[in-house]
Each structure stands twice: as structure tokens, then as C-alpha cells.
Amino acid sequence: MPETTPLPDPRRWKALVFIALAQLMVVLDATIVNIALPSAQADLGISDGNRQWVITAYALAFGGLLLFGGRIADLWGRKRAFITGLIGFAVASAFGGIAVNTVMLLSARALQGVFGALLAPAALSLLAVTFSEAKERAKAFGIFGAIAGGGGAVGLLLGGVFTEYLNWRWTFFVNIPIAVIAVVGATAVVREPAGGRNPAKLDVPGVILATLGLVSLVYGFTRAESDGWTAGLTLGLFVAAAVLLVAFVVVESKVASPLLPLRVVADRNRGGVYAALGLASIGMFGLFLFLVFYLQGVKHYSPVSNGLAFLPMMAAMITGSTQIGARLMMRVPARWLMFPGFLLAAVGQLLLTRIDVDTPYTTGILPGLLLMGLGMGTAFMPAMSLATHGVQARDAGVASAMVNTSQQVGGAIGTALLNTIAASAVTDYLKSHASEATSPQAAKLVGLNATVHSFQTGIAWAVGILTLASLVSLVFVNAGRPGGGAGAGAQGAKAEGAEDAIPVMAH
């Protein structure tokens, strides 16, 4: 008997505007503070030892609580969780903008992470349940994927503008009008389909184990960056993370209403997408990390010029997502967009391994950025869509949270891993070129070359990791093209219970 497809929401495209606006706010907040951090540190007297916590406090709260936030969205309803997350994020941002000391600023960043962990999965799951027709879904996820991928570059630009022309506090205050507009718009036009909530009891042991496990993992990589990989605290955190996350999997396999139903990640396509996005995030964060320091520290770009340098990459990412990914997604299987997309991004980064002290932007940096943006945009769009493909409506929030969890944990790992590799490269270079430092000027040049060499080394590792992301996409993602009939993806959805699944790929 054919399944009855409900009529699409006539206000769905207006809803997309406000859902995408909220996503932009969350994504750009991950980078907008980076450029403003030196000014905030000087203004509030933050010590060098505590400086990293402005970034880490947000990452720990956001990455550690994402699964919990996704489950709350399934329990409360996505619209309610979405609006609550927006309001809380705005309040936390205001708190950060008026911070008068280190404790107040770090508390605000942690609070932003808490509400971001509620807002991000609610936004993605709202998108998943709002757009059910395959062609429209491809277009909607193309826009959403471009924002998710390009928001970091927007954050770098805005961070530079606010820091140079206004004040570092505006990197927080800018979230308030965005949140207000999104709340008003969501209240008016966002509509959640009936019957999509998961009213089951909250899995408290799962919440505790997942949160502590993810926090230990993210914090472990953070400590590795500052203390080294073999430090006692670093190793202890990694061991704790492994024990907690293994215990979490065991608990989830036994409880009646798990925080993360294993069926969500056991699906071959979704599991492949989560792994590929996590690996790609390591490469993306590596690019931002090294190029920001290269342009500002070696090439002496101003904060605004630094941000502007990333705009072509953002434009290429939007083009790849909306004009290539969204158009081809209806014609080819997702793997044939994700695999070449991530591979093209890796080629772009490979070009950037050739930077030196005198590399010109137009011929030496811009081509790599354009290829990087085009490739990531093409790959992100089908990945975002496939992450909730065939999932039961009651699990949409958790499946969406896994997208953000893989990206956030990947970003934290990338920052620590690649920065540690770069630091080792500096030491090795200085040792091997010590004989060239025959004068103060020569020593300065050796130090500058050592810094650039460390960036080259870090980016080279990011190339390998992005290549691995493309291979994971090729091997594990085997869903057929949308509307292509009973492909692997359609069969997977049917096996999970097609009568409850979000009708995302085929009718």
C-alpha cells in the first residue's frame, strides 16, 4: 500500500532563512573570537596560560554536550529546543561582551557552548524534517552545507573588522541581533511536523558517560597541544576517554531508551559520513590555524586583510555546494560527490604546502584556497543530507547532533594534533640550521624560515588526513542516488522501519 506523503509546508523556504541564520551564528562563533583574542587578552589581563581557555571552554561544552542536546531536541521538540538555544546563546554572548575579568569571559564561553550544543542539532534536524521532497532537500542542504563550511571564514572576516575598527567585545555582541531575528522568524514560520518527538525517558547513565567521555577526549587533545603527547595528564585523559566511551557503547546496547541508539551510527552510510566529516574537520581547522598565523605573523596582514584573504574560499565553497553539489546530487550517488570533493580540497591544500616567506597571495595562496573551497562545498552538501538519511523521525535530533559532534571533535583533534606536529617541526628545523644563525639578522631569518617550515609540515599532514576522508567516503558511503529506486540507502531506511523514517531521498 503506497505511503501517504504529507503536503510540504508552504513556509518552508522562509523557515530555511532563519534556520540557516542560526547555524551561521554557531559556526562563525567558533572562529570569530580567534582573531579578537589578543585584544581581549590585553584588555582583561588574561595570562598566557589561561588564554587557550577562551577557545577550549567553548569547545569542551559544545563538543561534550552535543549528543545530550540532540536528545533534548527529540524530547522537547525541535522548534522549542531551537528557540531556547537561540535565546540562551544570545544571553551568553551578552555576558561575554560585558565581561570585566577572565572568569566572567570563560564562563560566558562555556555557556555559549552549552546552548550551542542544544541549538546546532535542533537546527539540522528541523531542516531534515522540513524538507522531504528530494530536489528541494538537495537545494536546502546545499545552502545549509555552504553556511556550515563557510561560516568559519566569515568569522575570521568579522573578527578582523570588529577588532580593527570597533572593539573585541563586538565579536560577542554581534550574536544578539542575529539571535533576535532568528527567534522572531522561527516563532512565525518554523513548523515542526507532528509525531516526530521521542517521549522516552532520558538515558541518564548515557548522558553522563557520553558527556564525560567526549569532554575527556577533547580536553586530552587540548592538553597534548600544551603539555605534550606523553605527559601523564594527557595520557590519563585519553585512557579515561576510551574507558568512558566504551562503557557508553555497552550501556547504549542494553538500555531501553538509549541516548544514542546504536542504529543511528551502525548504518554504513551515516557512519561513513560521520567519520569523513570528522577527518575533513581536522584538515579544515589545520588550514585556518596555519594560514591565519602565516598571513598575520609572516606576511604582516592586518586583521581585516587576514579575514578578506579567506573570502574567495568561502565564495568557492558556496559555489561548490549550491551549484555543483546540489545539482549533481539528484543525478549521482553521494560518494561520487564526497570522494572527489574531499580529494579536490586535499589538492588545494597540497598547493599550500609550497608557501615560503615571500609567497605572493594571488599566485601562491589563492589557487589553493579556491580548490579547497570548491572541493569542501561539493562534499559537504551531500554529507549533511546523508547524515540524516533514512533515520527514524524520533532520532533526527541525535543523528543531527552526531554531525556536529564529529565536526567539533575533529576540529579539536586537528588543532592539537597539527599544532603539536608544527611545534616539533620548528624545533627540528632550528637544530638542523643552527650553523646559519651567524648574526642577529641571520638568526631572525632562520627563525622565520623555521616558522614557515612548521606551517608547511602541518598542512602536509592535513593533506593526508583530507585524502583519508575522501577514501572513507568512497569505501563506506554506498547509498544510491536520490530517487534512484531501491538502492543501498533505500534498503537501509526500509530495514530501520520505513513507516517511521523521514522521507528524505525517495518517494
Automatic annotation (TrEMBL):
**Which stretches make up the Major facilitator superfamily (MFS) profile domain?**
15-482
**What does the UniProt entry say about where the protein is found?**
Cell membrane
Mitochondrion keyword on record = no
Q: Which top-rank group of organisms is this from?
A: Bacteria
Q: Which residues cross the membrane?
A: 15-37, 52-69, 81-104, 110-129, 141-162, 168-190, 202-222, 228-251, 272-295, 307-324, 336-352, 364-384, 458-477
Its main localization is: membrane
Annotated PROSITE patterns: MFS, SUGAR_TRANSPORT_1
User: How is the protein disposed in the membrane?
Assistant: Multi-pass membrane protein
Q: Which UniProt keywords apply?
A: Antibiotic resistance, Cell membrane, Membrane, Transmembrane, Transmembrane helix, Transport
* Tagged with keyword Transcription regulation: no
Protein name as catalogued: MFS transporter
Lineage of origin: Bacteria, Bacillati, Actinomycetota, Actinomycetes, Kitasatosporales
